[in-house]
Amino acid sequence: MNIQDVILGILCKQPHSGYEIKRHFEEYFSFFFDASFGTIYPTLSKLEGLNLITKEAVRQEGKPDKNVYTITEAGKEHFRSYLVQPAEKEVLRSDFLMHLYFGDMADEETMNTLLREGLQNKRDMYTDLEQKMNQLDGKLSPHQKLCIELGLVQYKAFIMKLEHVLESSGEGPAPS
Amino acid sequence: MNIQDVILGILCKQPHSGYEIKRHFEEYFSFFFDASFGTIYPTLSKLEGLNLITKEAVRQEGKPDKNVYTITEAGKEHFRSYLVQPAEKEVLRSDFLMHLYFGDMADEETMNTLLREGLQNKRDMYTDLEQKMNQLDGKLSPHQKLCIELGLVQYKAFIMKLEHVLESSGEGPAPS
DNA sequence: TAAAACATGTAAGTAGTTACATGATTCC
DNA sequence: GGAATCATGTAACTACTTACATGTTTTA
Prior knowledge:
The structure is a homodimer.
Chain A: H1 3-13, E1 16-17, H2 18-28, H3 37-49, E2 53-58, E3 66-71, H4 73-83, E4 91-93, H5 95-101, H6 108-135, H7 142-167
Antiparallel strand pairs in A: 1-3, 2-3
Chain A binds a DNA duplex (28 and 28 nucleotides) through helix 3.
C-alpha cells in the first residue's frame, strides 16, 4: 500500500481535488492511514503523468478555484490489481508503549502522567471515532462500518485494561 | 521517538552488539516498533560519533567477533530527557483496513479471503505474543508485562469482532 | 481587519528500507 | 558441502514530513 493506491481508491467513487482528498483521509480513515499535502499534490501530478487520472480546473463561487482529478480506465485497472493483492503486514509505531517499556528508568510521577495521558488520549480517540460513525452512518458501506468498529473495539480493550491497572494501583478510581 | 532513543534505552540496561539489538527488537517489541540492520549499524556509528556510546571489539569462541556498544553518561542523560517527554501520537498503518474500506469494489470471494487471512494473521500474532510473555515471564518488569498485555487485549478484541462477523455472515462458524 | 477555511504547490530534509557485499562458524 | 545462524557494513532508493511560499474568500 502506498499513497498512490489510496488516492486511486478514493477517486474510484467520484472525482476530487487534492484538498478534498486530504479531508477524506482525515474524516474516514485517519486512524489507520494519513498523509500530508506535501505528498498528496506531488502524487496527483505523478498519477496524471502516468495517465491514471486526469486533471480539470474548476471555478467555484465563494471559494478559490480547484483542480479536480478524475480516474481513468487505466487507473481503475491499477486500483483493482492493488485490491486483489494480499494485505501487507500491519505496522504500529507506539511511543506510548516505548515509554512504558522503559518505565523502570523513570520515576513514579512520570509514569503516572504517562498512563493517565495515554488513557485520556485513547478515550478521546474512541469518542471521536464513535461520533464519526454516528454522523456518517447512512453514508457508510457495511465494510466501511466494520473498519470503524474494529478500531472501536481495539480502543475499548486498551481503555478497559488501562483503567483496570490504574484502579488497582492504589491511585483511586480513574476519573471518567 | 526515533531509533537513536530506542537503542540508547536498550543499552541502558547492558552493553550489546548491533546484531543483539536487532534480536532485542524482534523478541521484545516487534509489535510496536521495528528496525532493520540498514538503520541499526549506521545509527550505532552516529551515536558513537556523538559520544553517547562507546565501541569495543569482542572476540567470541564458536562465533564471529562482534562490536559491543556501551552507553556513556552523556548517553544516559540523553535517554532520560527522551523518557520525560510526552509520548508522540501513535501511528497505525493498516493495509488490511484499507482493503476492507474499499471492499465494495472487490468481489465476495476476495473479501472472504481478506477477512479470513486477516483473522488468521491476528490469531498467529496473538499466539506468538502470548508465548513470548510466558517464556519471558521472569525477566519482564511489570511495565514491560503491561506493554504485552495491552497488545494482547487489543488483538483479542479484533479477533472476537472478526469471528463474530464471519459467523453471522452465513459462512458457518469460523474455524479455530 | 484579522482569523479561519479553502486551495495549490515546492524545496529541503528526515528516516527509514531493500538489496548488495562480505565473511566466520556451526550443524546437518 | 550446503544451509542456518552469527556478524557487520554500505549504496541506492523510497516515502514520506516540515516548512516555506502564495493566494482567495468568508466569517466574526
